[in-house]
Specification:
The chain is an alpha/beta fold. It has 2 domains: about 5-125 and about 255-345, FAD/NAD(P)-binding domain; about 130-250, 3-Layer(bba) Sandwich (FAD/NAD(P)-binding domain), CATH 3.50.50.60. Helix content is about 25%, strand content about 25%. The protein has helices spanning about 15-30, 45-50, 65-75, 150-155, 165-185, 200-215, 305-320, 335-345, and strands spanning about 5-15, 35, 55, 65, 85, 90-95, 100-105, 110-120, 125, 145, 160-165, 190-195, 220, 225, 230-235, 240-245, 250, 255-260, 275, 290, 295. Helix 1 (about 15-30) runs parallel beside helix 3 (about 65-75).
Amino acid sequence: MSASPIETDALVIGAGPVGLFQAFQLGLLEIGCHIVDALPHAGGQCVELYGDKPIYDIPGTPATTGRGLVESLLRQIAPFDVPMHLGQRVATLAREPDGRWRLATDQGTVFRARTVFIAAGVGAFVPRRLTIEGIGRFEGSRLFYHPDADTLARFTGQDVAVNGGGDDALRTALTLVAQARASGRPARVTLVHRRDGFQADAALVAEVRAAIAAGTLGFVVGQPTGLDDEQVEVTRPDDDIVAAPVAALIVCLGVSPRLGPIADWGLALERKQVPVDTARYETREPGVFAVGDINTYPGKRKLIVCGFHEATLAAWGATTIVFPDRAVPLQYTTTSTRLHELLGVAPN
């Protein structure tokens, strides 16, 4: 719980490609920002749905992947040291008497921002959860959904079960196996999936199959149906129940979009999208902008490149709010010494 609100010029809701590029454009204009995302890592839909699939329509980049694009955008905003608050969903948005916006997350973090940029795609992507009675009490201690690298590192050399059959589940299981091997500590990593087949990148599947054959990765066909302080129970397709002692159950069953609290913010939604103007990409609430798939306007196209354009004009639209007493000049990264300083590329 934050002791006091985090003060910022801008809060970006969403750490997908458009949200990350929004932070870059704000940085060029010297508008400080924070980023919040419901997922425990940056990338949003692009990483969750297209992490290893090719993308061919990014300007100047003949081919990349969702993961590769996000990695490039993270490198691009690195000079601005943008704080990220991941694994948190913005729950409330309210205007304060002085015109600023007060926002609070479901984890108790509170922000006071002059401007807000909603880059939430089709909504906050939240992990699909297990529907087992009472299992929620273990979340964050023995139960984790799509955890980040730091969380995985906590269980190096410990017995862990990974539930799922997609890219993220397979990658997580292989990471835990590699961590155990590197640490020299024996551990049993078990992959649990409802069937003996995976919906994942062919190279990942081949690597998992090889690890199972070599005995470095366990595999159980079934679904978790119980978790307690010592073990996980898995029910097989024949209703036989097997139990294994584990330090943690890691669930990677994919994510699904939830519009969630955005629907309650008074932004006059149209078919679950936020109407904006096309000069500043501002909503009907002054100081609240919407970019990317979450917004709508005549001629809207849901393309990443369009989101980049929207983020650029939205950042400029914020300058009159953040810097009300001065005009912000247009500068070019090719020639501006100030921008070179901000980007860390100025000659010594």
